[in-house]
């Protein structure tokens, strides 16, 4: 039998997306699905629930997969756009409805939950993705789904431990797979599932090492493994694993493009030629090694972060709370410190000063830089004056800084001022 290959143009995909992703599509299916999910109790609608449509569970699944297919196909051709993010958002809402108040023992619950989280993440709603997967305790997931979940959660130490254990297990080695294939009583699907799950684990292990080292060749190796795995899944009809592998391909591309390895300049600022490369590597390594790795920039940070690393540029960054202003300030501080200059951060509140001090100490302390904060009672002590004259990074409230400057206008000499 000849394999049919359907090639859709970007215009056709965009037109299809405009047709199926409009608000209120398919008789307000997403809205009805959200209501249906809220009414359910352990996957069962109560007898007095209002009519929300026969076969709504099937409709939600079909709608979610249609949007996910179009979104991924379009993203592979155009990159991440408002259109693809809208497709992923609507797909995620459909899959989330299928898991909300579902029977926790349902075989499909884990699969749909991972799809929803991954789709939300590709739609730039990372916080919702995290909330869907925390705590990561759903037993109804296979190894590939679990590994992708750990990547979504940025639990890279957990991902590394899990993939190592899975790949080194004798039960999943070549000899064990050969034995299954040669045993007439064993189902070949079991061997196929092991091979595909191992392919995903091996690919994500390569990708994790790429995030640790910055080696782009490892990303290419990871992508090549996933391409082979997706082809095998398609040829053997392993539908759920085909979807997981395709999501993994988009996920590693998205994360690598937004990673600090790609976003932090390789060229040092003027006067930092001797130290910048080492500082850059240690800065990224420090953020990678955190319990929840902070290895990439968020979409809200990209434009400002690019300008913040230009030491000749002055800029004002206006972002909502928790949108990532601190990481932008840290990027700017890194470039300044590499030049042998000092950083002053002015914060309006004592609590914010303490929070900023903790953040900068966690980031720059391992790099060997001193961090001090000035806030509290009025006046300036000798210790405060010493901090302003000598510490690499100083966090101060306006009142403290005003007292210090009135006492000695020449007390502070910094290369970067952040407020």
In short:
This protein has 419 residues and is mainly alpha-helical.
Give an overview in words.
Strands 2-3-1-4 form a four-stranded parallel beta sheet, sandwiched between helices. It has 419 residues and is mainly α. Helices cover 62% and strands 4% of the residues. It is built from 19 helices and four strands. Helix 2 (25-39) crosses helix 3 (56-78), helix 2 runs parallel beside helix 4 (82-99) and helix 4 (82-99) packs antiparallel against helix 5 (109-122). Helix 18 (382-390) links the parallel strand 2 (371-374) and strand 3.
Topology record:
Blueprint (H helix, E strand, L loop, with lengths): L9 H11 L4 H15 L16 H23 L3 H18 L9 H14 L3 H8 L9 H10 L3 H13 L5 H9 L5 H26 L2 H21 L2 H20 L1 H4 L12 H13 L13 H7 L16 H14 L4 E4 L3 H15 L6 E4 L7 H9 L2 E4 L1 H10 L8 E3 L1
Parallel strand pairs: 1-3, 1-4, 2-3
Contiguous helical run count: 19
The global form is globular
Strand count, sense and barrel status of the largest sheet are:
4 strands, parallel
Strand order in space, largest sheet: 2-3-1-4
Counting helices, strands and paired strands, the structural category is mainly alpha
SSE sequence, one letter per element: HHHHHHHHHHHHHHHHEHEHEHE
How much helix is in the residues? 55-70%
Number of domains: 2
Radius of gyration: 26 Å
User: What is the rounded distance between the termini?
Assistant: 66 Å
Mean pLDDT value:
87
What attributes characterize this protein structure?
Rossmann fold, 419 residues, 62% helix, globular, four-stranded parallel β-sheet, mainly alpha, 19 helices, 2 domains
């Amino acid at each position: 039998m000849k394999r049919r290959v359907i090639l859709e143009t970007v215009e056709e995909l965009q037109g299809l997306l405009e047709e199926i992703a409009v608000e209120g599509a398919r008789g307000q299916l997403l809205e009805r699905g959200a209501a249906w999910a809220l009414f359910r109790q352990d996957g069962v609608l109560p007898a007095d629930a209002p009519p929300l449509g026969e076969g709504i569970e099937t409709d939600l699944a079909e709608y979610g997969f249609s949007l996910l297919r179009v979104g991924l196909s379009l993203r592979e051709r155009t990159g991440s756009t408002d259109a693809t993010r809208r497709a992923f958002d609507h797909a995620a809402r459909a899959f989330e409805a299928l898991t909300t108040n579902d029977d926790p023992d349902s075989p499909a619950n884990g699969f749909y939950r991972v799809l929803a989280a991954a789709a939300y993440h590709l739609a730039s709603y990372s916080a919702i993705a995290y909330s869907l997967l925390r705590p990561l305790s759903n037993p109804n997931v296979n190894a590939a789904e679990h590994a992708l979940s750990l990547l979504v959660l940025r639990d890279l130490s957990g991902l590394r431990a899990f993939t190592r254990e899975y790949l080194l297990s004798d039960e999943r080695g070549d000899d064990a797979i050969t034995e299954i294939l040669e045993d007439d009583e064993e189902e070949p699907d079991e061997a196929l599932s092991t091979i595909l799950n191992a392919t995903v684990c091996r690919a994500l292990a390569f990708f994790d090492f790429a995030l640790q080292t910055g080696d782009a060749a490892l990303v290419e190796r990871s992508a090549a493994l996933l391409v082979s795995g997706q082809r095998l899944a398609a040829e053997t009809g392993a539908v759920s694993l085909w979807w997981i592998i395709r999501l993994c391909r988009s996920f590693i591309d998205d994360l690598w493009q937004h990673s600090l390895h790609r976003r932090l300049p390789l060229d040092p600022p003027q006067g930092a030629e001797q130290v910048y490369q080492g500082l850059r590597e240690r800065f990224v390594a420090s953020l990678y090694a955190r319990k929840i790795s902070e290895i990439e920039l968020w979409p809200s940070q990209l434009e400002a972060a690019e300008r913040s690393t230009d030491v000749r540029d002055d800029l004002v960054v206006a972002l909502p709370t928790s949108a990532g202003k601190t990481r932008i300030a840290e990027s700017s501080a890194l470039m300044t410190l590499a030049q042998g200059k000092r950083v002053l951060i002015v914060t309006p509140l004592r609590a914010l000063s303490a929070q900023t001090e903790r953040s900068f100490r966690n980031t720059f302390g391992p790099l060997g830089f001193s961090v001090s904060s000035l806030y509290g009672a009025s006046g300036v002590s000798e210790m405060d004056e010493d901090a302003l004259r000598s510490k690499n990074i100083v966090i101060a409230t306006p009142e403290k800084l005003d007292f210090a400057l009135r006492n000695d206008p020449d007390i502070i000499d910094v290369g970067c001022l952040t407020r």
